[in-house]
């Protein structure tokens, strides 16, 4: 839904009066710049992860499982993820969508595709998420637009490599081909190609997952977020 005119006018005024604007990703920064916000006013500080809660653990499930966590909606690219899973055609693979559904019709569309192994899991408490992440072979977020996507660094912290679109803000944490993959939006075949690669190369998948966890622990814990913010505030206070 589009925001009311008064909300847009209010936010435009606030951006104009602000000395500095915080953004959580370069995707968010670039969208602000396109709306006329000067680049030198924008401070980018990616969000953090509780690394004491989200951490790698041995897998108990032996199947190749693709996971998406968060709102199940068109904007999150659910149909692209499903189509990628269908095209990958990995024997006995599973696709789990975990979260609330904003468009109930999506489930019937997916079910009508006749692809086995697809499950819709209702929202779970935050404390249950690490166990869900660590049972995944790959995490996919095929969003058409996503300012950040906290689920991405959460999955990475659990040692799961991620496949995200270029419009996901948390792509800032992903080094393509090293700790995950970045693909264009609306590209289920590109996602399918990477899923097949991971299924055929479990050693490479494990190495990339370990790199994903290391990435988060070396710069994207909540303490790192706080340190970046404190350093910025010290600079502007001078």
Feature tags:
6-stranded parallel beta sheet; 238 residues; alpha/beta; two-stranded parallel sheet; 8 strands
Model description:
The protein is of the alpha/beta class and 238 residues long. Helix content is 41%, strand content 13%. The chain has 9 helices and 8 strands. The strands form 2 sheets. Strands 5-4-3-6-7-8 form a 6-stranded parallel beta sheet, sandwiched between helices. A two-stranded parallel ribbon has the order 1-2. α3 (78-88) packs across α7 (188-200) and α6 crosses α8. The longest helix has 16 residues, at 202-217.
Topology of this structure?
Blueprint: H1 5-17, E1 21-23, H2 26-34, E2 42-44, E3 65-69, H3 78-88, E4 94-98, H4 105-111, E5 118-121, H5 129-133, E6 138-141, H6 151-157, E7 162-165, E8 180-183, H7 188-200, H8 202-217, H9 222-237
Parallel strand pairs: 1-2, 3-4, 3-6, 4-5, 6-7, 7-8
């Amino acid at each position: 839904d589009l925001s009311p005119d008064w909300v847009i006018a209010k936010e435009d005024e606030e951006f104009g009066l602000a000395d500095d604007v915080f953004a959580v990703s370069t995707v968010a920064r670039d969208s602000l710049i396109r709306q006329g916000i000067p680049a030198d006013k924008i401070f980018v500080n990616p969000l953090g992860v509780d690394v004491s809660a989200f951490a790698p653990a041995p897998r108990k499930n032996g199947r190749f499982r693709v996971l998406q966590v968060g709102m199940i909606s068109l904007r999150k690219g659910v149909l692209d993820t499903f189509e990628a899973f269908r095209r990958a055609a990995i024997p006995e693979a599973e696709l789990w969508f975990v979260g609330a559904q904003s468009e109930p019709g999506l489930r019937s569309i997916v079910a009508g595709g006749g692809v086995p192994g697809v499950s819709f899991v209702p929202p779970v408490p935050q404390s249950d998420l690490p166990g869900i992440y660590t049972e995944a072979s790959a995490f996919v977020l095929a969003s058409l637009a996503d300012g950040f996507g906290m689920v991405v660094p959460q999955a990475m912290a659990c040692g799961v490599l991620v496949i995200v679109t270029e419009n996901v803000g948390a792509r800032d944490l992903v080094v393509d081909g090293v700790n995950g993959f970045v693909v264009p939006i609306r590209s289920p075949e590109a996602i399918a190609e990477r899923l097949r690669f991971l299924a055929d190369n479990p050693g490479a998948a494990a190495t990339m997952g370990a790199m994903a966890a290391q990435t988060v622990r070396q710069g994207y814990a909540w303490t790192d977020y706080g340190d970046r913010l404190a350093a910025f505030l010290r600079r502007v206070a001078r």
